[in-house]
Amino acid sequence: MALVERNPPTGFREDSNSDDNDSVFKKERNADLGRGSPNDAVINAKFRHFARRYIVNQLRKKGFEDVASKHDTASDTAEPENGSQHLLHHLAGNLAEERERQFEDILSRLGLTDDNLSETYSVIVQEMFIDGVNWGRILAFLVFSGALAVHCAREGMENRVGDVISWTQNDVERTVSRWVVEQGGWRAFVDHFDAGTWTIDSPQCILAGILLILAGGFYLLKKLF
Mean pLDDT throughout 103-114? Predict the structure, then answer.
């Protein structure tokens, strides 16, 4: 498998009460998601901004304030999240929190270093989107990037957190944003995770997929290295 070298370049809690979940999704669907047809450049810019904000917030949640502040920007704190961004942040944050230990265990077993970090990221993300893009994989992608940035900060590779953010933003532009536009924009994300699909496309299923992808990446990397 050819590896592509990359240039370094709080919300709601889910519970089992369906009425409560209905109110969550109604609130997000009715929020200001933007008007008119989705625009490639606008969606790309907003998602790049959101990806940075999500990773920075994950670093802060885990106690790495100094690292987070180096990668924060004025716009990250000044611009409020719209409805779809808030829902995405809520879902990704909850998934990361619920399986933090499993993520850290798998990332630790990968034996990440300055020398193999880029290759590792490439293998995992290529595996994640090998069969195309969907909303669950976008969530998985964000959770993985946040977990990887936190792992770097925890393991003395703070200097690579900026690389993880840049790679994530580049893959947003290369892989994710165009697909989101084709679905009709971020309003389609809110519609996908409405009360009707929540029980089918559950967080537990997404989590299982994320962990399988990471485990698969671990297997591939062990074969390559």
Answer: 86
Measured at the alpha carbon of residue 38, what is the angle toward residues 36 and 43, in degrees to the nearest 5?
A: 130
Architecture of domain 39-224: Orthogonal Bundle (1.10)
0.70 exceeded by pTM: yes
Contacts of 93 (CB under 8 A, 6+ apart): 10, 11, 54, 57, 58, 61
Give residue-wise pLDDT tens across range 170-211: 999 889 988 998 998 888 888 877 644 544 345 556 566 666
Name the residue ranges covered by the structural domains of the chain. 39-224
Residue 28 sits at the vertex; the CA angle it makes with 13 and 137, to the nearest 5 degrees, is: 70
Compute the distance between CA of residue 104 and CA of residue 20 in angstroms, rounded to an integer: 31
